[in-house]
Amino acid sequence: MKTTQSVTTAVMADQYVTFSLGNEVYGLPIHHVREIIRPPKITVVPLAPKYIEGVTNLRGSIVQIMNGRILFNLQSTAKSKQTRIIVLMKEQRQLGYVVDRINGVENIESGSIDNYEDNESKQRWIEGVAKNKKNASIIMLLNTDELFSHTHSLTSTMQKKQDSSYDNHREHGNKVVLQRDQERERNNQVTVNKEVDIRQFVRFGVGHEEYGLSISDVRDIVRLPEKIDRLPGAPSYFLGLGLLRNQILPIFQMSKLLGIKASNSDNRSRVIIVHVHHGEKSYAAGLLVDSVSEILRLYASDVMPLPEVLRTKKTESIEGVCQFTEKKQIMYVVNLLTLIPWSEVEQFMVDQQVRADKETGDGIITPNLHIKKDNKKVSTHQQDLHLIFRIADEEFGLPVSQVKEILRVPEILSIPHAPEYIRGIANLRGQLITVLDLRVRLGLEPIQIVGQQRIIIAEQKNQYIGLIVDSIREVQKIRIKDIEECEVTAPDHDYANYLSGIAKLSDHRMVMLLHLKVVCLGKNDSLDE
């Protein structure tokens, strides 16, 4: 038995999958080929080498895609019906290799393989050449060990792309920090007192007004599902039952609950999934709103009680009011326990269940109105709330815990001799912050500031930094098990390992999660210096 196994392995090692790139023929050892697929949807990874097309989600695994044409400096062409991706496997790591077409499988004896000496730039990628017995053409055999040896984990320590730019940034950054420290010293007493209680809100629009929900009550923000089951005899605010993140939940219209004329749902409409607790009971539901704007971080003292003249039975669910931005916009803070008549909803659902049992003998699908507290604790450990935003055609994310607030782009003062990705400094309520253009930081072309762009105010070790992004998409829970470390091949590149991972969402989207410390400061140890 041992002899037979040894012979089989030797034969497999001499078999190669052959393929074409332009007019040239190449081969890969078949024992490293896991499968051959058609080109899937590929997510572009900024700052990657040119021959890295991006990454794709292959049955739950994040696989890097390498373009063979670009790797060997061949003329780039559009993908055709014959284009395939050869998925290679080595030591539990996968790599996708784009080829023009698959030719077949060739048996090549090891003694017939010659050294490759024609092109120095290709030598390290090609372990030898052999002749095709059928037509005497040359087959260049790729070195899979060399391909995989140039992969670097995105979660490893970053290598700085431009040390000179970094040094200049530190020099000017220290001046900004000095000014900020002086400002903090002048306002130290006020800051100490205020930072005792800081609150975060998800700001959303209903009608012509702006409202806020405590972020501790928010579990997710999604689009309105296409199918909603309407229930006869439901209260006016009860839109129906919908499937939200694999749960059937009641969906309420916030306009009806707030006594505002309802507007038609459009592309900006969102459903905010909330979990609230009242005594021994916990409730979950979806709230349909006109739009979701941002996450606001406010001092508790900034939220003022509703003026006495406005306190009525209809406004008892408004627990406070605050002003935000320089335009002095007003946001009303909503108390979900008093806004939503949970007891009425619970009784209505019980009546619906009883009616269905009497009429058909079968129960209706009971929505997850109640959430056990134990389940919530488990869910908290397994999921993190992330802010999802867009840069160019791709989506990125940051943990909400690192996001302090989101603003429209204010006036920015440029800093002489600063790196290109440093837009300058901005005055945030008397505090100077450094503003980075994430497009430029990730190796993309800058664009003109228009209405959609936002600045994410993030914090790293008590330092505030502004990040310009193209647009804000949503706030979403991401399960830890859905975040995968990704490797990127970067030979001969000073590559910035700026990703902490790639998240695979339930709707097949992929979100690249940024390593904030690396993105902002370049060197992993720079904050400690």
TrEMBL record:
Residue ranges occupied by any CheW-like domain in the UniProt entry? 13-153, 198-345, 383-525
Instruction: Say which domain of life the source belongs to.
Output: Bacteria
TM ranges: none
GO biological processes: chemotaxis; signal transduction
CC terms in the record's Gene Ontology section: cytosol
**Which segments does the entry list as coiled coil?**
none
A Pfam family recorded for this sequence? CheW
Name assigned to this protein: Chemotaxis signal transduction protein CheW
- Protein's organism: Heliorestis convoluta
Please spell out the taxonomic lineage of the organism that makes this protein: Bacteria, Bacillati, Bacillota, Clostridia, Eubacteriales
